[in-house]
Specification:
With 214 residues, the protein is mainly alpha-helical. It has ten helices and no strands. The radius of gyration is 20 Å and the shape is elongated.
Length: 214
């Protein structure tokens, strides 16, 4: 039995996915090979194929785990806070930490997907899962009266996803971390602050606190 196989199958898959993520980050999706991933683990290429039939199959498995990680970051950052703007800083920092090892990978994969139908299908499915998580989160925010009744939640979810993806791209092209963070916070203020203020009337002190998060 190939030595990549540990006592539990899920542990083996997790090790392979972690190695693939690192190899994709270093070489890019297009240049990375199954052999590269096997070398990273110190096993034969055949051992990888016991778990994943192709590089695209492996990438699809990576994508499937991303929406759950996003959901955990989203809910742990915002929790039950009354003011969503303050929690947005924590969310931003956690998300950037998660993607720190491969900041340009998303951009490179999007480019590759424009000429690869299989990748495009995977990314579309992945986006739908992100969209569902965020739409449900915004619906809960509406019940807490921090999301306006006049907002269409699904398009808003897509707008926020597009904003995040755009900032990731700008980070790759030279935007600083602080500039990206400030842009994120200003956008959320524009969306949520008036709604929050109309219901809760934040004090000058709380407004200064929000401003300092940038």
């Amino acid at each position: 039995m190939p030595k990549v196989v540990p006592e539990y199958k899920e542990e083996a898959r997790s090790r392979i996915l972690d190695a693939a993520n690192r190899v994709f980050a270093e070489k890019g999706y297009h240049e990375a090979t199954m052999e590269d991933i096997a070398k990273r683990l110190g096993v034969s290429k055949g051992a990888i194929y016991l778990y994943f039939s192709s590089k695209e199959d492996l990438f699809e498995a990576m994508c499937k785990s991303a929406p759950q990680a996003f959901k955990e970051i989203l809910y742990s950052s915002f929790g039950n806070e009354v003011n969503p703007i303050q929690s947005a800083t924590e969310f931003f920092d956690k998300m950037l930490k998660m993607s720190a090892s491969n900041p340009g990978l998303s951009f490179e994969i999007l480019s590759e997907a424009s000429r690869n139908p299989s990748l495009k299908r995977i990314l579309k499915q992945n986006h739908q899962e992100y969209e569902e998580v965020l739409t449900n989160f915004l619906a809960e925010g509406r019940k807490r009266r921090i999301v306006g009744d006049n907002l269409d939640l699904r398009p808003l979810a897509n707008a926020l996803i597009a904003l995040w993806n755009g900032l990731e791209t700008l980070l790759v092209s030279g935007l600083t971390f602080e500039e990206a963070r400030n842009a994120w916070l200003e956008a959320l203020k524009a969306i949520f602050m008036n709604q929050h203020a109309s219901h809760d009337g934040p004090s000058p002190q709380s407004s200064r606190s929000v401003a300092r998060t940038g």
